[in-house]
Amino acid sequence: SVLLLLDRTAVIEWARHHVRATLATQVARIAATPEGVVVDDQALRHRLAKDVDRANAAVSRAEQVRKILPLIVDMTPGGSITPTLKLRREAFLAAASGHIEALYADE
Questions:
Q1: Looking at residue 72, what DSSP letter applies?
Q2: SS3 2
Q3: Cα(100)–Cα(3) distance, rounded to whole angstroms?
Q4: How distant, in Å, are the alpha carbons of 50, 58, 64, 85, 92 from that of 61?
Q5: pTM higher than the cut 0.85
Q6: Per-residue model confidence as pLDDT tens digits over 36-68
Q7: pLDDT tens for each residue of 27-38
C-alpha cells in the first residue's frame, strides 16, 4: 500500500489538460491539511496506477504496491514538512493515521 502525496497545482493542471474540469475545481477548493485529503477520481487513480505498475515491474511480488491512496497534503514548512521540504515521517504518520488504517481495514 502507498499514500501518494500529490502537489495540488500539478493535479489541477493535469485535470485541466485532460478535460476534467470538475476534478480541477474540486481540488482547487480543497484546504490541504497535515493529514491529507483523499482525491477520489477514477481517471487520476488510473493515471497514478500506470506509474505504480511501472515501478512494480522492477521489484519482487512481495515488494509490490497493491493499494494506492492519493492525498493532497499541506506541503508548507512546519508540522509534517521541514524547512528544506523533507517529510517528517513520524509527524505525518501520526497525522495520517486514519488514512493508513483505512488502507488496511479491508485486508
A1: E
A2: strand
A3: 8
A4: 16, 9, 5, 31, 27
A5: no
A6: 888 989 999 999 999 999 999 999 999 999 999
A7: 888 877 778 888
